[in-house]
Amino acid sequence: MAGRRRRNFLSQALQNDRLATPMLLCWLGLLLIGMVWDQVLLMPSPRPTQAQLQAARPRAMADWKRLVDEVAVRQRADGTPPEFGAVWTIKTGAVCGYVNSKDLGIDSMTRFQSVGGRLQTLQDDRRAYIHWWLDCLDTPWVWLHQGTEKTGLCASRRGRESAFGRDFCDGDEPIRPAPATVASAL
Question: What is the DSSP string of the chain?
Answer without folding.
Answer: -HHHHHHHHHHHHHHH-TTHHHHHHHHHHHHHHHHHHHHHHHSPPPPPPHHHHHHHHHHHHHHHHHHHHHHHHHHTTTT----EEEEEE-TTS-EEEEEEEEETTEEEEEEEEEETTEEEETTT-HHHHHHHHHHHTS----EEE------BGGGSHHHHHSHHHHHHEETTEEPPPPPP-HHHH-
